[in-house]
Write a structure and sequence with these properties.
This protein has helices at residues 8-62, 72-75; strands at 86-88, 100-104, 109-115, 118-122, 129-132. The protein is an alpha+beta fold and 136 residues long. The protein has a five-stranded antiparallel β-sheet, covered by helices on one side. β3 and β4 form a beta hairpin.
Amino acid sequence: MKNKGFTLIELLAVIVILAIIALIATPIILGIINDARNSAKQRTAELIAKEAELAYTSYLFKNNGTGEPSDFCKYMTNDYFDMDSAKLGDTPCSDAGTGVKVTGDNGVEYTVKYANGTVTVSADNLKDVTTKLSSK
């Protein structure tokens, strides 16, 4: 009677081949995951910039069209900035250039600043996102 099955050498060969495939695939998969995280981080920054525009528009609407973009800290409050996936930080806003902190639902802290007619959103390892505000 002949035994049917795999020899130890055949099993070891299959295990070695699977290990090589895993070693090749792991960095590729980790790279894809990192790219997705960075893309999500960038998209959140873009959404925060758009929400800052909306906050400014809401600020103008509630104040009968009076106000300037330089009133940055007046419209970057919970009264005007209302975003589901990002929340304003507890740190008081400063018009002196420090801006305001916004934490995204991804846990990343973004800094939103206003200068020379432009709102800039930045975070670690992120290309800055800017949006122009006009007073009327």
